[in-house]
Amino acid sequence: MPENARISDYQARLALARLLAQKDADLERAAAQYRILVRQKPGDKALAKELEQVRTRLSPPPAKAPLPGQPPAPAVDQTLEQARERFYRGDFYGAEQLLRPRAAQGDRPAALLLAEVLDAGQRHAEAEAVLEGLLRRDAGDRDARLAMARSLLRQERPGEVLAALSPLPQDDAEAVLLRARAMRRQGRQAEALALLERAPVNTERLLERGRILRDLGREAEARAAFAEAARLAPDDAEAAYEAAGDERTREAFVAALVARENRPEALLRWASLYSRDGAHGPALRCIDAALALDPKSFQAREAHAETLAWSGDRDASLRELQALDRDFPGNFKVLLAQARTFSWNRQYDESLATYARLRDLDPSDPVPLREAARVAYWGKMPEQGAELYAAGARLQPEAAQEGQAKALLHDGRFIRALHGYEELTAAEPANQEALFDQGQAACVLGLCDQEREAYDRLLDLDPLHGQAGVALRRLEVRQAPAVTAGGDYWREDGHGDLSRIERLRFDAGLSSPLGERFRMRLTQHLWLDSPERESTTYDALGQTLGLGGVVNEYLRLDASWTNKRYNEHGLDNLDTGRARLEFNLDDLARVGVGWERQEELANGFALRKGMYSDNVFLDAAADLTRKLDVSAEVRGKDYRDGNSGDSERLALGYAFTDHPRKLRLLVSGERRDTKTESLSVYTGGTLTDIVHPYWTPQDYYAGWAELQWEHDLSKEFFCGAEKHQYGLALGGGTDTEENPAVRVSAHWRYEFLEGWSLETRGLMHRSPQWDADSLALWFSYAFTQGGRP
To answer: Domains, the chain, ranges and CATH?
Structure first.
């Protein structure tokens, strides 16, 4: 669970102490929790008073009749206690219903508890409004100011935390701790340490000091701080957990812990700490032990279901959540966990139905609306997602901003989506969905440095965020130096004697990053060119040096140069190459301009003449909608032998279905023309030469239609994820040479074992005047290093 969705350690223990104090049978356990809290905050008078009240109930003094005129002792506020109990048992809406009327009448304790309930439900703006109302009445309200600071810290707004705390005394123990945490979030660890040095020594202060020292890599000092915290508060689960270090996940340690600990609340605290650090196995052991002690505990049952979901056993989690839903109908925490787990399990319809139940319980809560909108987009239901975002925007203005960015990302408007998410994450630094989508937009655009920054920020918020951790690791793979090996086979036969050759090329290459946005490629080639009707195979060696990458979101470039040196037969060496610039016109279209020198080796005569052409081209592509796209190219050719030509192509594509099973129809048309037609020269019936030995279409037009099937079998569907995809295509067309054709093609890509990938492609083209076959197979391996520390 992300940190901003958790209540703090202090709040959790205080909530537990107050819950236990409601029953006489649990007073001893309540007193134990209060004693830990008082040791953590020795100067907190309110805590000391609550502990004294529990002690009084444990050993009540003899009853005395009140003196004449003396008012009776104040009665326990039953409404407030009932609201607290509902809150601690996950019934946030029930607690809110009890507290709203009291808070509206100016009841300060009710307003403080209401703010706590709203903040725990991630309704931060509403919580802030309640607290601001208290501060308007009394700017010196310490409890309201501290609650405001805690809320702002959960929202990753450390600068505002410091501003909120500024009126409080510099020696206020809890304010000092919150200031230190805010400075730590700002990267000001040295100042935070210095601030803590001036604070009274207590468990919370030592734990925060240990965390900062660990961030700074001062492990020995951090361990000493944790050990001292455990010595001061031997019953404090977090102090013991941190002091145990790596030992805490060992089997012997966990077995001893669950054997000796007989307090369900302590076992659940241990479980939450294990889960926070991704150790779900020990967490489940602790929860099972707590359930053995108290099988009816809501907190233990709910924690068990959530931990199963985090550990990947989502079906078992859903079974437990459905049982909790039967036992605690309308419970906010249960329904929210159920809706989220359905979505993680890709049961999007069930998730949306559960979010709808939450909205029916409290239409004023923006959280279910916003989360449901996200799920609708995950489930490829953009219309429903847009409607939910629009409804959420009426309750929370930021929902409109997120909805607009999400729609842009869904429709392939990646530049505008990236900029939208940059603005959104500046306003909502703790918005994990926005941070991940920001990284995805940067990934598509090739902005690897911005992609990394987004994932790093997200993992700082939630170190166990599954997709962000995987995405960052996959980025490391994509950025790593890599080797590639493979081969490419091509055969064509047709157009009289113009296309008669069989070609085989073997490659072995190395690529390496140049910074975060560019990559250099060096490839060694071996060519085997075999003109048909000849007994000779011409072999050649050569290398390609290439460079490609993005300058910014609007400009990318790619360039390469290849030399080809024949070993014998006196053939001319060939130098070919390509350079292309692509401009992204703010997502309206992508326009490319470039130059290319390419081989024109389709027969033995062209091979012996070292034929090539120099091309200049202009291309453009646009995604008109998510389903409809258009592309075009204009190209001019100058051949080595003085001939020239031009071609134009226009294509329109439409997708009938969406990812991961996409069925698409591509319709295209092209025109070609060449200045001078080729001429075959015969001597005594024997072909001895071809002038312009390549296909030279004259005022040629062709039309083509192709049905394409793409199926994504990958485990994860996000940019940069490990791929497992295949595609099939069947096309046909005709031209002005009355040459109807049919073509079948296929491709498959499989990435495995983190750094390995395999890719193969094949094509078969048949027509009365020209046949062609091709097959390619490639392997690659990336030399990855260790993951994120």
So the answer is: 480-782 (2.40.160)
